[in-house]
Amino acid sequence: MNSELLTPPYSLRQLTSYFLRLGTFGFGGPPALVSAMHRDLVLNRQWITEEDYREGMALAQLAPGPLAAQLAIYLGYVHYGICGATLVGFTFVLPSFLMVLGLGWAYVQFDGLPWMQAIFYGIGAAVIGIITMGTYKLTTKTIGKDWLGWLLFSISAIATILTESELLWLVIGSGGIYWLIKAPPLRLDSKVSQASWPFLTQVLAAVPTDSVLWKLALFFAKAGSFVFGSGLAIVPFLYGGVVKEYGWLTEQQFLDAVAVAMITPGPVVITVAFIGYLVAGLPGACVAAAATFLPCYLLTILPAPYFKKYGKHPGLKAFVDGITIAAVGAIAGAVVVLARRQLVDLPAIIIALTATILLYRFKKLSELGLIGAAAILGLLLRSGIFSALL
Fold first, then answer.
1. Per-residue pLDDT averaged across 213-237, rounded?
2. Alpha-carbon distance values, 302 to 59, 172, 233, 297, 306 (Å)
3. End-to-end CA distance of the chain, in Å?
4. Of 8, 37, 169, 374, which is the most exposed, with the fewest CB atoms less than 10 Å away?
5. Neighbour count for residue 154 (Cβ, 10 Å)
6. What sign does the dihedral 332-334-335-337 (CA atoms) show?
7. How far apart are CA 384 and CA 80, in angstroms?
8. In a domain? residue 212
9. What is the number of helices (H) and of strands (E) in the chain?
10. Does pTM surpass 0.70?
11. 138-152 residues labelled b (16+ CB within 10 A) or e (exposed)
12. Where would one find the signal peptide in this protein (predicted)?
């Protein structure tokens, strides 16, 4: 069914309200957020078709920038065009941006946040359980019993685990393989996306670099324009720039910035606002966030009409399906990478396993309640209260 010919079963206000809530309470980074969108908008509310969701996932994987934000922007575009894409993108990112600003202010005022790591310890472990269940549901729904799909999924997941990043060539290659096997070849028109690159590079080249704000704008525009793989891949790029190249932050400050991004809801890439705040206060935070998210916004809405127009063609549909399968595999691999870094001891493993079992057993269990309980448990464990009682 063509979504363009149907009256949307929801209003733009309802959609923006949903993404405002997801941006406020959606923890877990890209794997959890894209799984939540699929569960809420495709399966439960049936506002978005499976085809439109897959097209959005494919486009988000093909373009650089934060995966969850790009998918949200595309889903806003499906029935409400550029207006919907703009409002959804803004409302999705705004809550975490404001939270990060508050944490940045507290971090500067109180010379660091000693309690942050304790809270992150508990929340991070619970989030592993949440994204594990979300990825499981997304995987079984996307692939089903397709042997080729499981093969491409496994290759993508293993590659992500080994390299700790999403490989664009592998994602596109999976689309090509699935396309060649499932449907006849189709020549894709990429004039719009190709035309946008010279414009973006000319703008970036023209930006003066004689002030900190302009340096921030140039650096984070590059991060938003040329880094693939969402939150997982952008962290090494940010580290190389803000710590090694420019020396804006110390090693510890950078680690704290990543922790802030993980303990706040919404896209993990919002850590750029925290970094910008530490470097140049409120103006720095605004510049860093705008420079990072503007390219991904443009690189989502510019190709979107072509996805909407040609997305139902069998050849392109097979290509999109292959890309989506590889994307889900990369998300599954990212869960393993995150778990390896987060589950550092037995209590953390127990918290993650408990969260997974509870979510599997109780389908309507509140994820926010789990996260709150895990945060309190993390504080208790790291403060030594449990040890004192024992």
1. 73
2. 11, 19, 23, 9, 8
3. 61
4. 169
5. 13
6. positive
7. 52
8. yes
9. 17, 0
10. no
11. bbebbbeeeebbebb
12. none
